[in-house]
Every structure is written in C-alpha cells, then in structure tokens.
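Morning. Coffee machine broken again, so started the prediction first thing and wrote up yesterday's gels while waiting. Chain of 239 residues, entered below exactly as on the submission form.
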Amino acid sequence: MTELLFVLMGLVAGTYGTIIGAGGGFIIVPILLFMFPDRPAASLAAASLFAVMFNGVSATYAYGRMKRIDFKAAIVFILATVPGSILGAFVVSYLSRSVFEGIFGGILTAISLYLFLAKRDYSKATGRAGSNAHTLVDSLGRSYTFSVNYWLGGSIAFGVGFLSSMLGIGGGLMMVPTMVLLLQIPFPIAVGTSQAILLGTATVGTLTHLSKGNLWGEWAVAPLLAIGTVIGAQIGARL
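Came back before lunch.
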C-alpha cells in the first residue's frame, strides 16, 4: 500500500504539473516534508527532482508530438539554468529543515499571491511579435507567431535553475508566468517549452544531487514517484 501511495502521489503531481507546465515538484516536496519529518531537506529535494526529471522526459515527448515546444528557446534557457541548477543542489545541502521550509513556503506563497492578485487569464495570452518573430504551428493546425527576448529570459532562467534545484520543484512554476507575462510567449507554447526546460534543469540538478550523495537514501521513494509522474505527464498533456 505504501508503494502504491507513492505512485499515486506522483501520478497526481505529474498530471497537474504537466497541465500548467510546472512538473509537479511543488506538490511532491510538501508531502514528503510531512511524511518524513526527520529526513534532511536535501534528500527530499533530490527525490522530488528525480521524479520531476522523469516527468520532464514524458511531458517533453508528449508536447513535442503536439508541436508545442519552442526548442530554440528551450535550449537557450536550459543552458542558462545549468550553472544555477548545480549551485542550488550544493546550497541545499547546507540548509537546515526549518530554513528550507521557510524558503520553500515563502516562495510558493509569493507566487500564489501574485498569480491570484494579478487576475490574468493566462490561457488567452497570444504572444507578441517583434523583429525576431517566428511562427509555430501545432498538431491541431493552430498558428502562434511571437518573438523571444533571449537575454531577459536567460537571465531569469539562471535564478529559476538555482531555486528549482535547491527546492526540488523543477522550476516550471516560476518559468511559465515568466514566459507568458514578461517574454510574451503564447500560453500553450509556454507550457510545452517549460516542460522541456524543466527536463534539462531537473537532469542537471539530479546529477548534482547524486554526486553529493543526497539521493542515495531515497531509492525506495524516488523511483515510485517517477513512475507516477511519467504516467501523469501523458494524461496532463492530453488534458
């Protein structure tokens, strides 16, 4: 029953996370903190990021088939997140549980309040065409024309990579609003592209956590969560 619980947890987190392009780590981490009050924050962040990495693989495949990923933007932003992802995995090893929980709760509360108070309908964001505008046509024949400010996006991606690796959440929860509101990328493309960025960020972060030994005590949990997130990603992308 315990094994099934972890798979279901990953399934729910992966499904909802993929719908909004966030990966699901922001759901997994708080639950793990409640379930394992004596485990180091770095270990739980590593377990979550491991599951988020597999969610990213599955969701990137699904959104790639739907042709809703701007691969050029994804590659640029992944490269920008790499240094931050490595740094975040190192920093979390030195944080106490109480400090980690304070940072985690504070960031999620701030994001929640901003999204709630902004009262924006993200699903209707159509993007903005500039001098370097390009067009993507998805598998349903819908056309999206927009331009991307790579310098601004890359600068923000570095910080997102740091926080995502440190907190074990993947970064999509911060990257999607950034791409929609600041970079003016259409919402459907932002969600798919965010999952591709998340894949790169989570992979680098997971490998760094692995090298630090943060993941070694979580092999009974992390793979089960990953199984759920892989399945959830397929469901979430279709929804």
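The chain is about 70% helix and 5% strand. Going to sketch it on the whiteboard this afternoon.
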